[in-house]
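Discussion board: Methods & Data

I've been asked by a reviewer to show the raw model output for two of the constructs in my manuscript, not just the figures. I'm not sure how much to include, so I'm pasting the format here to get opinions. Each protein appears as its amino acid sequence followed by a line of discrete structure tokens. Is this the kind of thing reviewers expect to see in a supplement, or should I convert it first? Here is construct A:
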Amino acid sequence: LFFKCKFVKYSWSGLNMEATRSQFESLTSATAVVQWKRPEHDILKINSGGAYRRETSDGGWGFVIRDHAGNVICAGAGRENHLLDAFQSEVLPCMAGIPAASHLGMVHVMA
């Protein structure tokens, strides 16, 4: 689902990782679709996700920071090799998203 988000596609393209995004798009993801809920006014929300392929130990991750209106403030994504498990692929975007928010001076952030 994350790799199919139309806003995140621009981030992958901007990072010259469209081919990687296309590969990850075919991976199995959550079966239930959860609708995004807006944060309160003056609060930014970080959504993150990861993908892991057990056969190769490769995976990808991404995060998006949005405001109360759903506007994308910042996004990031990456690909990793030699992951230990799916949990690690879920932790990586947190390790990137929180510092990104801090670097931009964001103080009212929720995950």
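Construct B, same format:
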Amino acid sequence: MGDAAISLLVGLFLSTMSCPADALPSTCRPEYQKLSGGLVHTACKPPNNNCIFVSTGLNMAEKADVLKAHNDFRSRVAQGQLSGFPAATNMYRMKWDDNLAQVAQAFTNLCDDRHDKEVQRKTSKFPKVGQNIAWNYEPTQTEVIDSAGRVKDWFEEYQDFNSGNVDPFRVSHGRVVTHFTQVAWAETRYIGCGYTHYKLRNDDNPRFPYKKLFACNYAPGGNMIGKSMYKIGAACSACPTGTVCDKATALCYTPGESDGLDSSGGSTGSQWGIIAFFLLGIIAMAAVCIGIIYVRSVTLRSSYPTQQPCTS
């Protein structure tokens, strides 16, 4: 089954499921339901009813492209090949994380190009998660995503970043550079991204009705003022404990670890596994809806007195 069919299934799942408002999305894990301060986790937010999906999700090849683009750019920094920047001693090789990707996808499916809060994108494994987002508006519908190109746009911000602010990390007032610094943050090891192509029912920009929203979530998150963007020194000379240096890229990795993607270039599991996941999600949502409706109907019936048959 092709990627287009999978995207259609995902879109149907996300846009057509409807039930009482207090039924939570299938992505809303129990640990996501415990945020303080009245905040709602991104994976627990209800659908945006103003959003009409054209397509959702990255296919297998696109996920691999995003991961490769990040590691290629990180390698340039680590090897000291970036003009004006010193080499890095401790740059991790990134790997894909499905849970980060699931939350990133939940974010883009909300059709809102404003960052969520750090705590709203946490996962079971990662309490501190960074985020980069990109979007564009188009007059006509096209299916070109160019996710690797988005990563390149983020990385190109290095031209506006003062390399003297690498260690300790600081940000000067001026042009945006924090997409680049997150891409090149040495201790960030995991990444997961989402993508949604959509229209809005009530759009204040009718000349450009088609929107594409791309987001990557990172763990551990970077851009921490006063910390180290990366350690300066001989390339790959101080890899974290338990990792070794890939001399070809100057990136640090754990021997024998996978990149989080299977041999077909996607996240672990076949396309049929993805389909099964969403079908199970639909079944679970249906069960929740039926349960809520049943409880409400029982409650409603119990609020009325039992009618007795008329006798003469």
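Answer (T.O., handling editor elsewhere):
This is acceptable in a supplement if you add a one-line summary per construct. For B, something like: The helical segments are 3-16, 60-78, 98-108, 147-155, 178-183, 271-302.
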